[in-house]
Design goal:
The complex is a heterodimer of chains A (about 475) and B (about 1000).
Chain A (H helix, E strand, L loop, with lengths): L10 H4 L17 H13 L4 H27 L14 H12 L1 H12 L9 H21 L27 H34 L3 H10 L7 H34 L11 H27 L8 H32 L2 H12 L3 H16 L4 H5 L1 H28 L14 H24 L5 H11 L10 H12 L1
Chain B lengths: L42 H17 L24 E6 L8 E7 L2 E7 L12 H10 L9 E2 L2 E2 L2 H17 L4 E5 L5 H13 L3 E5 L6 H11 L4 E4 L6 E5 L10 H13 L6 E6 L4 H5 L2 E4 L5 H15 L12 H16 L4 E5 L4 H13 L7 E7 L6 H12 L5 E5 L3 H4 L3 H10 L2 E4 L13 E2 L10 E6 L2 E5 L12 H8 L6 H13 L9 H11 L1 E3 L15 H17 L5 E8 L12 H4 L14 E3 L1 H7 L5 E7 L2 E9 L7 E6 L22 E3 L2 E3 L1 E13 L19 E3 H6 L24 E6 L8 H9 L7 H5 L8 E7 L6 E7 L8 H5 L5 E3 L5 E3 L9 H5 L6 E2 L35 E2 L5 H13 L12 H5 L5 E5 L6 H6 L4 E2 L11 E4 L1 E3 L4 H4 L1
Parallel strand pairs in B: 6-7, 6-14, 9-10, 9-12, 10-11, 14-15, 15-16, 20-24, 21-23, 28-39, 29-38
Antiparallel strand pairs in B: 1-2, 2-3, 4-5, 4-16, 8-13, 17-18, 18-19, 20-27, 21-24, 22-23, 22-27, 25-26, 29-36, 30-31, 32-33, 34-35, 37-38
Helix pairs in contact in B: 2-21, 5-10, 8-9, 8-10, 10-17, 11-13
The chains are: A mainly alpha (about 475), B alpha/beta (about 1000).
């Protein structure tokens, strides 16, 4: 795949399309050196006060959560507000919530890559990082929610001397373990692979010996040759192809924890698509929150532009509408099916003791995204920030509503109960946010939070070019072929 | 002869935690058998017998050899881990039911009913089931106490004997104040004292008294005795506030009779209950009418007037009748008249006049001699309130020199406890036989702790001519001594209890029978059977009615008029009652009973002021609001519980709570409401009018195990009317086999299943404690119950239907349904809950990681999770944190650790034992060989367990019954546990009128 001059259109033609292409980098097109300098700056300078304050808060939350977990391990999960009727509440709510957050990364890196969405370039790195941290937070909960976490390995299918005694492959919890581990692995690989050219860049500009050595090791001897690039592109595409189904599968399987049970409110065939949409919705919500904060503070608003935010808002609008539709469908099926228990659960959801949670959920997940039809909202950073926060509040409540309202009033009214969270429940939820933000804050200081090479590629694409450059040649070629098709 | 028994100092095989220096040398005298006992005996007999010999070797090692006992099995063959059974008599309440006590390695671990007993049968009540835990109560005294200091028996005896000798010599007044003593041999000792010392007096006191009932019989029939009631013979039962299925007189026996009377589908008895609170008995009634306690007399009188009128007797006074009952009285009187000689009227009233009216009703309706047996009356209750009142006066005046207290705690449970305590201080010397430093015994000069009844010899005669023996199932744990031995010792006859008892039986009871000529054989046989019934030699002498019923009726009418005349204003009547669990409070330190949900309100760990929904609405009260009840000078603060079916004019509160010196589990739980009770016309009355109720504005969280009482239109408890019953055809159970993607499970030889008859179940809750005792179910405490984390494997769901003023109710025992398609099994990630080839859904504790997914997916919500470590955890110091309390644990059942799920196993350990037994005897398991703990305890015989693979087993037959159904059948869980529909037999009052 060479860049020969025949395939490069004359400079004049590039600016001609009737609808101007969105500009994914604002202002005057920066030079490649400028891009590297902009993105890598946080890595070189001592963090400012703002970062320290944020990190201190995140660490405090993490420490509180860790303390609660220690307390939990010492006494048993009775320190949570769970009871005979409600066997899962904050634990699994948080788990599904974080898994959902972790959905944006892969969607952006894999699916948008396959669909050739150029705007993913400046946000994919941090979205992927966020995915990994969110999945880490999520995987904490299945572990600590166990009554006997010290025998957690029973849940892994491994050869053992107990017969061997295998896990129950019929249990959706086993599927969960497999799905999450797969997802975490793929996400990590994808994230790391995407960073290799940047790590090489960092290696090249590192002035300190240990840094150079470290980045040299991490960049796996990247030399930027055309052959390397070509292989790199291929691997990226293959991995994207592998990862794309995971975006669907992980939350599908998580939803099966509920859908395959027989509990009214859980046992619904709509759950897989509805959960996937919800996951993307919440994942984009979180990406939006994080990027709105970091683009300003890290001085990257040039690379993470209003157009990016707008694109993400549109994804939120789409997935939010799917969720709203799914809520309606749930109620419709409950009514249409004629099952007394299911009808009762749905009515109780909207009118029972947890109705306030339900209506928060409706407000955040059904009403809020509809605001995004207006361009005014989509282009207002403040409005988007509020929306993004509401999205995640809504999605947390959605999981809480699904789990707790379905459990608290099941088939036998004699066994109806209530769940009230304890300080430990809340502490561990806060702790999971602490863990997430600590990881993210550290990440933005030690690794480039925007994919330098991809932005360069994008800039290169927007720059009237008369020469070839060493970056994503094949991609660029395809892109331009596509543009002319 | 067993070698172990030759030495005095051979230790027991169990570990006594604190007190291995136990000085008592009174061990167990084991029974033996020299006859061909196996012929025709059951497995239970075998176990019982085997038990005697075996436990003898274990528990009686230190006993001096009084008699050479040949062991059936040599000591070399004693197998640790094989249970032994003792027949004995329950001492938990005055009813005196026959028991079999299961001991393992010398420790009693489980109480069961003695099916040989003609009275109580194989059933027990919750309190009786829990009595085994009271044996291992940490609060029990370790040795006698003299003047508050631990002492020895010789010292205590010296002091007490001297005092008594001096007192008798100088003609001082000596009083023995005791609870009901059911033991004829003990009563004989007391009788001897009375004869020898004219200044000795025996006063029997019960805080919840049936004195008026007894007195009324004396007035009407010249016999001061509580009749022996026969609910099974009655076709119409009218109860005026007598909770005969829950707490009144002899609930186990009555439940058994009652259910038998209702089992006959064509001649089903009808039951009318007039009551103030919603009792277990009321919840089973065919017609239930809430009335205030002040109207008990008016209702009895209303019935009497109608019956007398119908029989042409004049002179019955009229009295205002309570509006709620008015509509029913004609109909009920009509029913009673229709079934002459086949009805039974009982009353829990503590008013002699009311009881006289009730006795008259029974007389007029021809029930004396049929359903009311006075020829062979009950001897369970002999308390005398007037004697107690007189004693209190004497105490006031300082006229009592020596007071012996046995089994009583008036400083706690007497309405005038302060006056009693003041009087007690004036006594020159007081001795208590209490097993702990309770509210009364802490003020006694000497405390000579009695044995727990499981450590003691004894006998009982609950109903005249029906005797039972009690024998120790364990050597005394502490340096305690049987109260009988104490009495004998203080009267200068230092005999041990065993020798005395045996001698008494030889003298007094052996001659009553003719079957056995040899006393030893008679003794051994009785000991093995536990019971001994003297057949009546001649026909009972007809008992003449000589009561002045008109005077009593006039008195009742006067009261009713006065009650109507006095303005109620904003005041209510307070009705005090015994709870099914704690009864009068003597079992307050038993954590099993504290945590037993009340059969109706489902309250645990405390008492409440039950108010009717109307009262709650009028006063804007909600569950948990703390109110203050003011009556005369007393003010009592209690949380409110809105109780459907509660009489609108009445506030009901359970007694037995608010102990201050019961022990760690019982102290400061609930509020003591005994001070609200009054003495009225010489009887100890547990209700009082003119009580005002005020909100305090504070709230308390109630520890209830069920918070929602409506079935929400779901088909959970199914009912049939009597008409449906005759109409409906026995339909084969529709076994719809839906297609499955999974291979069928391999099936074994058995498929264990259970059928529960909802028509028989009265809700008494004996099964709950039986299960707790059998399966080492932990006690979790009030706070955890408030968070709905109770651990009971079997719960009794209670649903109301109809108007909240007077709803109908149903009880549904609910435990693991052992589903054929178990939703819990498929979701467990680690295969910790699986299906056995015998149809059991089994839980594997050491595989469980505690995801709780199974519990979430269980439609019956019967799975219980160990949220904390409940055993050996000081935070849960109920009984599993003390070495003594842990002795009650069943060694056949794992004590679960923190973080694992548990649930009903259908007593898999019993199933295994039954299979092993059959295997050893080279036969197949026969139907009825294996009984689950709940089934065994059920006095109503509502639970049937067996093999569904055996088409002739009872459980299989019941599954083919047209009343059979599965709960939530539509889910396709295919449970092995099913139910028989409840039969509704409403008494249509309007129609009959």
């Amino acid at each position: 795949m060479t860049l020969d001059s025949e395939t490069i259109p004359p400079p004049g033609e590039i600016a001609i399309p009737l609808v101007p292409r969105p500009r994914w980098v604002e202002g005057d097109l920066p030079s490649f050196a400028q891009i590297t300098a902009d993105v890598a700056r946080p890595l070189d300078v001592w963090p400012q006060k703002g970062w320290w304050v944020c990190t201190a808060i995140a660490l405090a939350a993490l420490a509180a959560g860790a303390g609660m977990v220690v307390y939990l391990f010492a006494h048993g999960i009775g320190v949570w507000g769970l009871n005979n009727e409600v066997g899962w509440a904050f634990d699994i709510t948080n788990f599904v919530f974080w898994i959902g957050i972790g959905h944006a990364g892969t969607l952006i890196s894999a699916i948008l890559l396959l669909f050739r969405q150029r705007w993913r370039t400046s946000i994919n790195r941090s979205a992927e990082a966020m995915t990994i941290f969110a999945v880490l937070c999520a995987s904490l909960f299945p572990l600590i929610h166990m009554g006997r976490p010290w025998v957690f390995f029973f849940i892994m299918p491994y050869p053992n001397q107990r017969g061997p005694l295998w896990v129950n492959f019929r249990s959706p919890l086993v599927w969960d373990v497999v799905a999450i581990n797969t997802y975490l692995t793929i996400s990590l690989v994808f994230w790391y692979l995407g960073m290799i050219p940047d790590l090489a860049t960092l290696r090249d500009r590192a002035r300190v010996r240990w840094r150079r050595t470290l980045f040299a090791l991490l960049s796996l001897g990247w030399n930027g040759s055309q052959r390397t690039w070509r292989r790199y592109e291929k691997v990226s595409t293959i991995l994207a192809g592998l990862a794309a189904p995971l975006v669907i599968s992980v939350h599908t399987i998580v939803s099966m924890d509920f859908a395959t049970s027989l509990l009214p409110g859980w046992h619904a065939t709509i759950f897989p698509p509805y959960f996937v949409a919800g996951a993307i919705y919440s994942g984009f919500g979180m990406v939006l929150t994080l990027l709105i904060l970091t683009r300003k503070t890290m001085g990257l608003d040039r690379y993470i532009t209003g157009a990016h935010l707008d694109a993400m808002a549109k994804v939120i609008l789409l997935t939010g509408s799917i969720i709203g539709y799914a809520y309606l469908t749930e109620f419709f099926s409950a009514w249409y099916k004629g099952d007394l228990f299911e009808r009762f659960t749905m009515i109780s959801r909207a009118t029972g003791p947890y109705a306030w949670c339900f209506w928060i959920m409706v407000l955040c997940n059904v009403v809020t995204p509809q605001l995004l039809w207006q361009k005014r909202v989509r282009t207002s950073v403040k409005a988007l920030f509020i929306v993004s926060i509401l999205v995640n509040i809504g999605m947390w409540f959605e999981r809480f509503v699904i789990i707790v309202t379905s459990l608290h009033r099941t088939f036998l009214p004699s066994a109806w109960g209530m769940f009230t969270p304890t300080i430990v429940d809340i502490g561990i939820l806060i702790g999971s946010f602490g863990l997430f933000f600590t990881c993210f804050l550290v990440f933005i200081r030690i690794l480039p939070m925007v994919a330098i090479w991809e932005v360069k590629e994008l800039v290169g694409e927007q720059t009237p070019r008369t020469f070839g450059f060493a970056g994503a040649a094949g991609d660029l070629e395809n892109e331009m072929e596509g543009a002319h098709a | 002869m067993d070698d172990h028994r030759s030495g005095d100092e051979v230790r027991l095989h169990w570990k006594s935690p604190e007190d291995l220096r136990n000085g008592s040398n009174r061990g167990v005298e084991p029974a033996f058998n020299d006859g061909d006992w196996l012929g025709g005996s059951t497995r239970r007999d075998f176990l019982t017998l085997a038990g005697f010999s075996l436990t003898a070797a274990l528990a009686a090692c230190r006993a001096p050899i009084e008699k050479a006992i040949p062991l059936l099995v040599g000591s070399d063959d004693i197998t640790p881990g094989v249970a032994s059974w003792y027949a004995t008599t329950c001492g938990a309440c005055p009813a005196g039911c026959g028991l079999l006590v299961k001991t393992r390695d010398g420790r009693p671990i489980k109480i069961e009913g003695n099916s040989s007993s003609a009275l109580s049968g194989g059933g027990t009540c919750a309190t009786g089931q829990a009595a085994v835990l009271s044996l291992y109560d940490d609060a029990r005294l370790r040795s006698p106490m003299v003047h508050g200091k631990a002492s020895s028996w010789s010292k205590a005896d010296a002091v007490i004997s001297n005092t008594l000798r001096g007192a008798f010599a100088s003609r001082q007044n000596v009083v023995l104040l005791s609870r009901n003593i059911g033991s004829p041999s003990t009563n004989a000792v007391i009788e001897e004292w009375s004869q020898l010392n004219p200044h000795f007096r025996h006063v029997i006191y019960e805080p919840v008294s049936l004195s008026a009932l007894r007195e009324a019989q004396s007035e009407c029939f010249g016999r001061a005795a509580v009749p022996h009631y026969r609910f099974d013979k009655a076709r119409v039962i009218v109860s005026i506030d007598a909770d005969f299925l829950g707490t009144w007189l002899s609930p186990v026996e009555f439940t058994r009779q009652y259910v038998r009377g209702r089992a006959a589908e064509t001649r089903r008895s009808q039951h009318v209950q007039y009551e103030s609170r919603f009792s277990v008995t009321g919840s089973n009634a065919d017609l239930r009418v809430p009335i205030p306690p002040s109207s008990h007399g008016a209702v009895a009188l209303g019935l009497l007037r109608r019956v007398a009128k119908a029989q042409g007797l004049d002179g019955c006074p009229e009295a205002p009748e309570p509006a709620s009952a008015l509509a029913t009285l004609d109909a009920v009187a009509g029913l009673l008249l229709k079934h002459h000689g086949q009805s039974l009227i009982v009353s829990g009233s503590q008013d002699v006049a009311v009881q006289t009216v009730v006795a008259t009703l029974n007389q007029f309706l021809g029930n004396i001699g049929t359903t009311v047996d006075l020829a062979q009356p009950s001897l369970q209750r002999r308390e005398n309130d007037s004697a107690m009142a007189a004693l209190l006066d004497d105490l006031d005046r300082g006229e009592i020199d020596v007071l012996l207290l046995h089994g009583v705690n008036p400083a706690y449970d007497h309405p005038d406890a302060r006056r009693f305590l003041a009087g007690l201080k004036k006594v020159r010397f007081s001795v208590s036989t209490s097993d702990r430093m309770d509210e009364t015994s802490r003020f006694a000069d000497a405390v000579c702790p009695d044995h727990h009844f499981l450590e003691s010899w004894g006998d009982a005669e609950p109903v005249q001519s029906s005797f039972s023996l009690a024998q120790p199932a364990i050597a005394p744990l502490f340096n305690t001594r049987s109260a009988v031995e104490s009495l004998l010792s203080w009267s200068g006859r230092p005999l041990d209890h065993y020798a005395y008892l045996r001698d008494y039986w030889r003298r007094a009871l052996f001659p009553l029978q003719k079957e056995t000529a040899d006393f030893d054989a008679f003794w051994d046989n009785t000991l093995r059977e536990g019971v001994f019934v003297v057949s009546p030699t001649s026909d009972p002498v007809p008992i003449a009615f000589r009561g002045d019923w008109k005077r009593a009726a006039e008195a009742v009418a006067g009261l009713a008029r006065a009650s109507v005349a006095s303005p109620h204003g904003n005041t209510y009547e307070v009705d005090l009652y015994e709870s099914v669990a704690l009864r009068d409070g003597r079992h307050a330190n038993n954590p099993w009973l504290q945590e037993l949900p009340d059969p109706i309100s489902k309250m645990t760990w405390g008492n409440v002021a039950a108010v009717s929904p109307a009262t709650a609405a009028a006063l804007a009260l909600a569950d948990g609001d703390i109110v203050v009840l003011r009556s005369g000078g007393t003010a009592t603060e209690l949380p409110v519980l809105v109780q459907p079916g509660q009489d609108a004019q009445t506030i009901s509160v359970a007694v037995g709570y608010g102990r201050i010196a019961a022990g760690k589990a019982g102290n400061d739980v609930g509020v003591n409401v005994f001070p609200l009770a009054t003495m009225n016309n010489g009887s100890h009355r547990l209700w009082m009018p003119n009580v005002s109720i005020e909100r305090t504005g504070r709230r308390a969280e109630l520890a209830t195990t069920q918070r929602h009482f409506s079935m929400e239109g779901r088909d959970i408890v199914q009912e049939l009317s009597v008409a449906d019953l005759s109409r409906s055809e026995p339909a084969p159970l529709a076994e719809h086999h839906l297609p499955s993607l999974w291979e069928p499970r391999p099936e074994g030889d058995h498929s264990w299943g259970m059928v529960i008859d909802l028509d028989s179940c009265t809700g008494c809750s004996a099964c709950v404690i039986a299960c707790q005792s059998e399966n080492n179910v932990p006690v979790v405490g009030k706070q955890e119950v408030q968070r709905t984390r109770e651990m009971h494997w079997i719960r009794i769901d209670r649903y109301y239907s109809g108007a909240p003023e007077n709803p109908e109710s149903v009880h549904q025992p609910m435990m693991c349904q052992h589903c054929g398609n178990a939703p819990c099994e498929t979701v467990c990630p680690v295969l910790a809950t699986t299906h056995s080839s015998d149809g059991l859904n089994q839980q594997i504790y050491n595989r469980c990681v505690g995801t709780r997914y199974c519990a979430n997916n269980c439609p019956y919500k019967v799975r219980r999770f160990n949220w904390f470590q409940y055993a050996q955890n000081p935070s849960f110091d109920f009984h599993m944190d003390s070495a003594l309390g842990r002795m009650v644990l069943n060694p056949d059942v794992t004590v679960r650790s923190r973080g694992v799920m548990e649930k009903c196993s259908l007593c898999v350990q019993r199933i295994q034992a039954g299979k092993v037994q059959a295997l050893q005897e080279k036969r197949v398991v026969a139907d009825g060989d294996i009984k689950t703990a709940c089934q065994q305890a059920c006095p109503a015989e509502a639970i049937v367990f067996g093999d569904l693979k055996d088409p002739h087993s009872r459980v299989s037959e019941l599954r083919r019954d047209h009343r059979y159904y599965n709960v939530l059948d539509e889910l396709g869980t295919r449970p092995n546990v099913g139910y028989l529909k409840k039969i509704r037999n409403r008494i249509e009052t309007q129609e009959l009128k």
